[in-house]
Amino acid sequence: MIRHIRARLDFPGVACKECEKSRQIEGDIPDCETAKGCIIPLLGEKGVRAMAIRDKLMKLRKLVDPQTILTAYGATVDDLEMLIRLEDTFEKVKNG
Asked: DSSP character for 96?
């Protein structure tokens, strides 16, 4: 997870949509379709879910309390543990 977050911070313009645009305009083959592979490591299913929940928590924090968001997403104990790992990872990246 730390590699994914670090890569997202180091390469903020890298996204599947941008690679697809480059393919359409320039005819470039995205790295993810070659032996080189994407520079952004994939997250597992749990990591993707945790990132989605975190995104909503961050964007809605001034409008809705966290419990409401977690309930709406049906957050489980596993989700909460993954969110903790995610926050710990963000702290590690932030603090070097």
From this structure: -
